[in-house]
Amino acid sequence: MSDSSVKSAILNIDLPTHENVLAITTTRNNGFSSVPFDSFNLGDHVSDNEQCVILNRKKLSHSLPKNCNIQWLNQVHGSNVIDVKSYSSTPLTADASYTDKCNLALAILTADCLPILLVNNSCSEIAAIHGGWRPVADNIIANTVKLFKDCPENITAWLGPCIGEQAFEVGSEVKQKFEKLSPLFSKAFVKQSNEKFFAKLHLIATLQLQQLGIKNVTGLGECTYSNPDKYFSYRRDGQTGRMASIICITP
């Protein structure tokens, strides 16, 4: 991250050797929404004032190239991936998107779930993934990588802020679901005295990416739950706003 200031609304994501790709992620700060969505809420489905969300999204758009359109998704915690050929003003129902088109900014909304951005070395293909535990367990990462024409060895993955392991307590059924995919995932769960487990979302995603052949994994490993001045967190606050992570191929 080139700017880690708590008061910044928009943070640039540093993707070395990917000059033709713009990637950003947001915090909760310096927007227009009121409590409990204060203040840079970008989610239009959380009962925030509609005009505040519009103003926040306009501010976000102004940080992108002039002819760039943000493609929003209607995220449903599923494993469907959409190949975006052209901009749609109506959100597309899916939890991941892929494109090889310029000036199409793929957006993911999160407030504890893991945002995952993908780009190939030639900057000709990108994707954005809503990495909640359910989509990840249902192989949304693999479903997305399948759309790339390039081989996985040429793809870089960026993992954004999400709920950290000390706050993300899950039941044994979640652990078992991942272990059915591979015994390797057992290392991503730490047993607690109450028979539940702390889950490491970043590690789970990294293991899946590596299994798919993607070795270049980078990111910002900050915990949304434990940084209330910087990030929204659904598990911490219940009713709250959403951050956005965005990636776009520029001419």
UniProtKB/TrEMBL annotation:
Matches recorded under SUPFAM superfamilies: CNF1/YfiH-like putative cysteine hydrolases
Keywords, ordered alphabetically: Hydrolase, Metal-binding, Transferase, Zinc
Reactions the enzyme catalyzes: inosine + phosphate = alpha-D-ribose 1-phosphate + hypoxanthine; adenosine + phosphate = alpha-D-ribose 1-phosphate + adenine; adenosine + H2O + H(+) = inosine + NH4(+); S-methyl-5'-thioadenosine + phosphate = 5-(methylsulfanyl)-alpha-D-ribose 1-phosphate + adenine
Similarity remark: Belongs to the purine nucleoside phosphorylase YfiH/LACC1 family.
PANTHER family: PURINE NUCLEOSIDE PHOSPHORYLASE LACC1, UNCHARACTERIZED PROTEIN YFIH
UniProt xrefs under NCBIfam families: peptidoglycan editing factor PgeF
Record-given protein name: Purine nucleoside phosphorylase
Source organism of the structure: Thalassotalea psychrophila
Lineage: Bacteria, Pseudomonadati, Pseudomonadota, Gammaproteobacteria, Alteromonadales
